[in-house]
């Protein structure tokens, strides 16, 4: 065991966290590396019991490496395993100290329901809550991401869409922003590579980015009940793809985009109340089979 | 211009709401009045097949005293601001912590969490709304009081006040929680504080021991209602029995529900089996041990054949009857003989005890619930399908075999029409059975979300047409269920509402009452 890790576990022990967790035989939360400081938010990854944890870590570390200085080490990780089922109070204690801290978490749906409530109980601030699902044969759009974020500042969708479009034939990303933004000028954001952009201003301002299908169809695929009148937004050629390291699959890409946002590196702000990215084209090559039938929930929250 | 609130109460302008919020801040302090999106986000997530935005609150207030609540209702009356009260706020599958209508202010009583009294001899507790079962469990343990709680499956994180006020249930002999409630303190919409039952009398020391007081019994009107804010709540606890014997009885066919219910009813009514039993379908138990995607992919409800395979692979019955005996060893031995004799008669039942079940995870969590222990294992249901969609369909059935079979078959048939699985159980049951079905669906899939909505709507329509009423429902369907109980009851509910809360500031829309 390296010294940093030993000291941190010792620190947690003396701080009472592990004692508070106190369930016999339970795998304790392990903090692997020290918390970074400096230009990005002090952040930690919190891994619940999902089968994709290891893959998720890869994407998260890639984002961390891309956006932090080398002296900040690796992204610190806490592993929850099944602690949430057995000892939610202990988990709350773990989340509370040290503070302030930004947590980037993934869990299965069962633990997500509990974690959302723990965040409320400890007066946490929930910045983004995402549901991510790949359901092999079950739907018209098999890969789906649904986010509710406090404001567009915590939007993950655009970054993720620019990555997914390079190797996923069918996906949808829907983001709902709770804070009503100040509507700014039409040219606030750049066109997104591969997508055509549309805006509807009928009730709230909604943005729709489509690849391989018209907005009327995309509208149905994301479950919009009203047929909005979508106005094209950008003309001219779009900018190139994102500057990201090579990532293997959609889970890594999701974690890369999520951690990038959590660290406060958000490329473009938007001024809509919801936006969606819908891609349907069958020409590209994929690496999806491994993650068929996968679902998990992601969180960014501050304590 | 952008609003500084994520939602506004119906009919309240931003300027008026600004004033109300600053008045709330004067009473509670800045940090106990939440208005920004990041703080309110955890209050918004629901599992219902409607946009979360439909249930977004405008603010949340974290009150800690009765006096604060009295002042809050005064402000609400003045500015016509509606509030939605939660105690621990874990009403998963019924609307969670979110209000019934967009823009209502959540009055979150989580910080009002004092255990006021636990009487070891008379076996009762008096608590504030924010007290969790875990807190009470730890308190009883620490003080070695020798008392047991009765908890719903979200045990540790939920609490007795919110659970009982919504007429929730647990699994010990005290499982029908409202039966064991005794005395409430309620802040009324006009700011007056009522203590129900014996609590109305100055210097009474019988508030938590005698329910009825004098004159019309009032406690019931503060459950599943919006007539007051409960600030103290008394209820009875079960003395820890000297011995406890949990067991499971497995059956292999869906039709066996008839035999199960016919066998169990006399045992329940006579008290041989004293606890709120569970008759769980294999698909209710399977998520603890397996994932749906291990057995089926593609659209449609899970086929019976796959369900049979799951039960075989994971040592489950198609029906699993969880029950327990409590008392001295001698009492248990006698009752065990009666139980086994009754169930052995047809030769269909497989009776299994703690020793035989070993560390089986489904049995273990049921055994914990039947003695009021803390476990959140039942949340595994949410991993069955994924996508975060869930609604409890909760019709009441007679405890009669033919009726439970009919309800099960009807529910399964309607669910299947929409491609959804039957994850159901029958619980509590002396003369009735709460038929509890978790309608699980993928909320990220628009087609399935729409199907789930229509399915739930049809379940309510078809069941009510056959005279089957729902005992509790999520906030998206409260009006619909209220409608099924007929116009006279609705009118009485409204008359009471108008009398007790003329400005309609307390949770308008709860149980369809405005
Ligand atoms: C996997 C799973 C299993 C479940 N199993 C069970 C079960 O076995 N039994 C069961 O009953 N439920 C069950 N539930 C549903 C629910 O989670 C519980 O009933 C839970 O106890 C309700 O949340 P709560 O106790 O925090 O109450 P709250 O959410 O605080 O309150 C419930 C409702 O009561 C009203 N209310 C609350 N406080 C007050 C107040 N002070 N004054 C006036 N009105 C008030 C409000 O309308 C509120 O919405 C289950 C849920 C899940 C996810």
Topology:
The complex is a heterodimer of chains A (about 300) and B (about 525).
Chain A: H1 3-14, H2 17-21, E1 43-48, H3 53-67, E2 77-81, H4 83-86, H5 88-96, E3 102-107, H6 109-121, E4 125-134, E5 143-149, H7 157-164, E6 170-177, E7 196-200, E8 206-211, H8 215-221, E9 231-232, H9 250-262, E10 274-280, E11 295-302
Parallel strand pairs in A: 1-2, 1-3, 5-6, 8-10
Antiparallel strand pairs in A: 3-11, 4-5, 4-11, 6-10, 7-8, 7-9
Helix pairs in contact in A: 3-9, 5-6, 7-9
Chain B: H1 14-28, E1 33-34, H2 37-44, E2 59-62, H3 66-79, E3 83-86, E4 105-108, E5 115-119, E6 124-127, H4 133-142, E7 147-148, H5 160-165, E8 181-187, E9 193-195, E10 229-236, E11 238-239, E12 243-251, H6 257-269, E13 277-281, H7 282-285, H8 304-313, E14 319-327, H9 329-344, E15 350-353, H10 354-357, H11 361-369, H12 382-385, E16 388-393, E17 396-398, H13 401-417, E18 424-428, E19 432-442, H14 446-465, H15 478-484, H16 487-500
Describe the structure.
The complex is a heterodimer of chains A (303) and B (514). Chain A has 303 residues and is α/β, with parallel strands linked by helices. Chain A has one domain (3-302). Helix content of chain A is 28%, strand content 23%. An 11-stranded mixed sheet of chain A has the order 2-1-3-11-4-5-6-10-8-7-9, with helices on both faces. In chain A, helix 3 packs across helix 9, helix 5 crosses helix 6 and helix 7 (157-164) packs antiparallel against helix 9. Chain B has 514 residues and is of the alpha+beta class. Chain B folds into 3 domains: 14-111, Uridine Diphospho-n-acetylenolpyruvylglucosamine Reductase, domain 2 (2-Layer Sandwich); 115-239, Uridine Diphospho-n-acetylenolpyruvylglucosamine Reductase, domain 3; 243-473, FAD-linked oxidases, C-terminal domain (Vanillyl-alcohol Oxidase, Chain A, domain 3). Chain B is built from 16 helices and 19 strands. In chain B, helix 6 (257-269) crosses helix 13 (401-417). The longest helix of chain B has 20 residues, at 446-465. The mean pLDDT of chain B is 97. The chains are: A alpha/beta (303), B alpha+beta (514). The interface between A and B is large, with 55 and 52 residues. Chain A: InterPro entries: TAT_signal. Chain B: Pfam families: FAD-oxidase_C (PF02913), FAD_binding_4 (PF01565).
């Amino acid at each position: 065991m390296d010294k940093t890790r030993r000291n941190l576990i010792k620190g947690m022990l003396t701080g009472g966290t592990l004692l508070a967790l106190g369930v016999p035989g339970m795998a304790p939360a392990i903090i692997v590396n020290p918390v970074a400081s400096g230009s990005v938010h002090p952040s930690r990854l919190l891994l619940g019991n999902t089968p994709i944890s290891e893959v998720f870590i890869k994407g998260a570390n890639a984002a961390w490496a891309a956006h932090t200085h080398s002296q900040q080490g690796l992204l610190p990780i806490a592993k929850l395993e099944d602690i949430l089922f057995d000892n939610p109070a202990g988990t709350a204690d773990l989340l509370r100290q040290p503070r302030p801290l930004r947590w980037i978490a993934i869990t299965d749906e069962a633990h997500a329901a509990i974690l959302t409530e723990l965040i409320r109980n400890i007066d946490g601030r929930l910045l983004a809550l995402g549901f991510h699902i790949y359901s092999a044969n079950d739907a018209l759009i098999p890969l789906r991401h649904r986010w509710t974020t406090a404001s567009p500042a915590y939007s993950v969708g655009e970054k993720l869409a620019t990555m997914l479009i390079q190797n996923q034939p069918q996906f949808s990303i829907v983001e709902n922003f709770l804070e009503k933004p100040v509507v700014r000028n039409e040219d606030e954001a750049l066109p997104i590579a591969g997508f055509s952009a549309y805006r509807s201003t009928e009730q709230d301002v909604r943005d729709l980015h489509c690849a391989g299908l018209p907005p009327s169809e995309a509208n149905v695929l994301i479950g919009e009940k009203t047929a909005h009148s979508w106005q094209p937004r950008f003309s001219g050629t779009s900018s190139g793809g994102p500057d990201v390291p090579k990532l293997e699959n959609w889970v890594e890409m999701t974690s890369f985009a999520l951690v990038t946002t959590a660290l406060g590196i958000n490329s473009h702000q938007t001024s809509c109340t919801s936006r969606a990215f819908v891609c349907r084209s069958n020409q590209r090559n994929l690496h999806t089979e491994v993650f068929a039938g996968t679902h998990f929930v992601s969180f960014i929250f501050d304590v | 211009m952008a609003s500084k609130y994520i939602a506004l109460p119906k009919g309240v302008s931003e300027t008026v709401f600004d004033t109300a919020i600053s008045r709330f801040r004067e009473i509670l302090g800045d940090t106990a009045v939440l208005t920004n999106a990041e703080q309110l986000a955890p209050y918004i997530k629901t599992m219902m097949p409607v946009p979360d935005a439909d249930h977004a609150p405008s603010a949340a207030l974290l009150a800690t005293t009765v006096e604060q609540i009295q002042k809050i209702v005064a402000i609400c009356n003045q500015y016509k601001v509606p509030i939605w009260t939660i105690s621990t706020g874990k009403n998963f599958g019924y609307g969670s912590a979110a209000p019934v209508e967009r823009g209502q202010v959540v009055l979150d009583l989580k910080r009002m969490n004092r255990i006021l009294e636990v009487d070891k001899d008379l076996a009762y507790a008096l608590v504030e709304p924010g007290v969790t079962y875990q807190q009470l469990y730890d308190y009883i343990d620490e003080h070695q009081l020798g008392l047991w709680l009765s908890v719903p499956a979200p045990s540790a994180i939920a609490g007795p006040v919110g659970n009982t006020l919504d007429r929730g249930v647990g699994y010990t002999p005290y499982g029908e929680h409202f039966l064991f409630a005794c005395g409430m303190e309620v802040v009324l919409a006009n700011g007056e504080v009522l203590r129900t039952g014996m609590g109305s009398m100055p210097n009474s020391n019988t508030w938590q021991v005698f329910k009825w007081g004098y004159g019309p019994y009032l406690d019931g009107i503060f459950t599943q209602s919006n007539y007051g804010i409960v600030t103290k709540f008394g209820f009875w606890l079960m003395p820890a029995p000297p011995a406890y014997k949990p067991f499971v009885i497995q059956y292999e066919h869906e039709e066996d529900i008839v035999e199960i219910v016919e066998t169990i009813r006399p045992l329940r009514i006579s008290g041989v089996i004293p606890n709120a039993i569970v008759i769980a379908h294999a698909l209710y138990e399977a998520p603890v041990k397996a994932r749906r995607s291990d057995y089926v992919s593609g659209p449609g409800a899970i086929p019976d054949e796959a369900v049979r395979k799951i039960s075989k692979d994971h040592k489950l019955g198609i029906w699993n009857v969880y029950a327990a005996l409590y008392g001295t060893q001698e009492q248990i031995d006698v009752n065990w003989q009666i139980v086994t004799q009754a169930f052995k008669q047809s030769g269909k039942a497989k009776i299994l005890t703690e020793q035989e079940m070993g560390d089986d995870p489904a049995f273990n969590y049921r055994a914990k619930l039947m003695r009021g222990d803390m476990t959140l294992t039942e949340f595994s249901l949410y991993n069955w399908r994924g996508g975060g969609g869930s609604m409890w369909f909760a019709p009441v059935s007679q405890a009669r075999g033919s009726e439970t079979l009919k309800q099960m078959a009807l529910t399964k048939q309607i669910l299947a029409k929409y491609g959804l699985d039957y994850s159901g159980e029958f619980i509590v049951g002396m003369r009735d059975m709460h038929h509890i079905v978790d309608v699980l669906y993928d909320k990220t899939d628009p087609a399935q979300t729409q199907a789930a909505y229509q399915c739930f709507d049809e379940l309510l329509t078809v069941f009510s047409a056959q005279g089957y009423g729902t005992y509790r429902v999520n906030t998206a369907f409260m009006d619909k269920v209220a409608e099924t109980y007929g116009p006279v009851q609705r009118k009485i509910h409204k008359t009471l509402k108008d009398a007790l809360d003329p400005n309609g500031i307390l949770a308008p829309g709860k149980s369809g009452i405005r």
